[in-house]
Amino acid sequence: MSGCVLVLNGGSSSLKFAAYALPLAEAGPLLRGQVEGLGAEPHLLLRDGGGTVLEERRFPAEGFNHRAAVLHLHEGLRDHLGDKRVVAIGHRVVHGGNRPAAAERVDAALLAALSALEPLAPLHQPHNLAPIRAIAELAPALPQVACYDTAFHHSQPPLARSFALPRALTAEGVRRYGFHGLSYEFIAGRLAELDPALAAGRVIAAHLGNGASLCAMQGGRSLASTMGFTAADGLMMGTRCGALDPGVLIYLMDRHGLGARELEDLIYRRSGLLGVSGLSQDMRRLR
């Protein structure tokens, strides 16, 4: 029996996954798919590496959360992997804080440290960590590795990382981190394969989706990013406001009596395309 690695990306209402045979090769994934609609209308779509649909299935909404999705994958993928066995699981984790490593094996101490960063990425971090907790319960001996979206931006110079705040706050970790780093790392690597001369120069890359950002790179390394301390900064996004004068928040606190959680809800969930249009965060509908 040969081994494979399962890669998971837990979102607020979805769980995306792919399985890769070991040793890793250019052949692409053995399987890939997603469970979407968690909390509403959960449904699974599973494809093989060539894109052929292997399984489509709907689940009852009640009780089918990230843990239930992980349990289904843990049991169900065995039927499609044949003689291959999952020997490790990798997870996209949006915020790695000040941790210097790009990826780390998960243990209880690391999970606690990553949980403490949830207020800095409330739309992502709790859902990134939910599958880790579920697998730790279902298969505690199975190695899990957290891969950080912030790690690619460690190469940014101090000027790009720092706010004009007192040094004590900077030392506390109040600085620009940048996000979507796994995406930019892939872009940098692929660009180097396709056009080494272009990749060695100055490049601006865009990650465009419900969350969006830009990254300035040189020689495949991050120099600056539009996202900062949190994933709410920078470009206007689906439901996030993007760059905002901090005085607006003070005004809303003073004049409208908004507290921290209400401000969080406003800038993360009720702004951006949804807030501006009053209709939807979906560009397909707004178009």
Task: Please tell me about this protein's structure.
The protein is of the alpha+beta class. The protein folds into 2 domains: 2-148, ATPase, nucleotide binding domain (Nucleotidyltransferase, domain 5); 150-235, no CATH class. Helices cover 34% and strands 24% of the residues. The strands form 2 sheets. Strands 5-4-3-2-1-6-8-7 form an 8-stranded mixed beta sheet. It has a 3-stranded antiparallel beta sheet with strand order 9-10-11. β10 (213-218) and β11 (221-225) form a beta hairpin. α1 (66-76) crosses α4 (125-138). The protein is globular. The termini are far apart. The model has no long low-confidence stretch (mean pLDDT 93).
- Kindly report the name of the CATH homologous superfamily of the largest domain: ATPase, nucleotide binding domain
Helix content: 25-40%
pLDDT averaged residue by residue: 93
Distance between the termini: 50 Å
Give the helix/strand layout.
Layout: E1 2-10, E2 14-21, E3 31-36, E4 43-48, E5 53-58, H1 66-76, H2 78-81, E6 84-93, E7 103-105, H3 108-115, H4 125-138, E8 144-148, H5 158-161, H6 167-172, H7 181-194, H8 196-200, E9 202-207, E10 213-218, E11 221-225, H9 246-256, H10 260-269, H11 272-277, H12 283-286
Parallel strand pairs: 1-6, 6-8
Antiparallel strand pairs: 1-2, 2-3, 3-4, 4-5, 7-8, 9-10, 10-11
